[in-house]
Give the backbone structure.
Amino acid sequence: MKHSLDHLFGRNSRWLAIRSEVRHFGLWLALFLPVNGPAFLHAQAQGAATLFEKKCYSCHNIGSGNKKGPDLKGVTAQRSREWLHSFIQSPAAMNRRGDPAAVDLFRKFSPEVMPDQALSPEEMDSLMALIESLSNKNQIFIPAGAKLSRPIAAGDAEAGRRLFTGKTLLSRGGTACITCHDLDGAGLFGGGTLGPSLTAANIKYRDPELIAILQNPNFPTMNSIFVARPLTDEEIVQIFSLLQSTKQANPTAAVAPGPVDLKFPLLGFGLLVLSLAGMNRAWKGRLRGVREALVGENSPRAGSLDRSQP
Ligand code: HEC
Ligand code: HEC
């Protein structure tokens, strides 16, 4: 037990600091720790990994690069605990308040926006301890649950295609992927454009990452449907197999550009207006012909963004 504790946190002052902070959150914990602390913390660390996988991993890696959001490796050394707690609870509020670090992050990862996370302070601390421990050990986060329930077999990709296009209904009532996503060869008229094309999904995401997304798509738009109607293990095998075989058929497919979401058509339109206004000012009196061409090019796009509104 002692071993697992050291393994997790190292015998350093950081760990002592965490423990003293954790104590802040409840006398019961302070009473509990001296007797049962190591066992408790070990269980908590496993809980943290599950929590991270469920709530954060669809957008964040620890140690293997930026995804939708920044790689969280080392973030606990960079930012204070108070900052992390307020940010994770409500990133948009921090951005609105003009917190310089939050404003920077929002600028860098736009149009992606991190949704508010309803976590208890204990859950938050356990996530921070997980990030800190992996960062210190220079290890990456590998999701435990992100495995297929069985090996892929012949016919899975085809079954996945029927699920994707809605020819077979998703058994728990989820909406067919094609409503919002395009996929190479998915249908005569292609798929919806609310979400990104998934032709390169298995290029953009490594296998366990993609499986984790199918198990738990923690994106606002998909969450609203799939939290209550998750894919079954079988459906995950079949759809994964489809996405994998699509990658094999399109090994050089371009990774889908930035994400799309219901609020982004509006945001995009706002940015377009702003950038046109900016161009107008910057180019006043010169390059008139170029400007007109650009405005002409951009206008139909504004129109198509509008049409994607529900
Ligand atoms: C839907 C995608 C998404 C999910 C889910 C998500 N995040 Fe984020 N996160 C982002 C984005 C994008 C940013 C950059 C700021 C912005 O644009 O909102 C970010 C920024 C952060 C930052 C600031 C990083 C830095 O460099 O300071 C932390 C910390 C963070 N997220 C933690 C979490 C944790 C913990 C969870 C799970 C409880 C989580 N996030 C879930 C997308 C997400
Ligand atoms: C109601 C619309 C909707 C449906 C239905 C839907 N998705 Fe999505 N999906 C989205 C949106 C929007 C995004 C982008 C989310 C974001 O970036 O915040 C997304 C993102 C994804 C991503 C990540 C793509 C990337 O490039 O980052 C994958 C993978 C994915 N969806 C798979 C699926 C699969 C498989 C299905 C069917 C089982 C499905 N989705 C059904 C709307 C939908």
Summary: The two ends are 55 Å apart (CA to CA). The longest helix spans residues 27-55. The chain has three domains: 2-136, 156-249, 263-307.
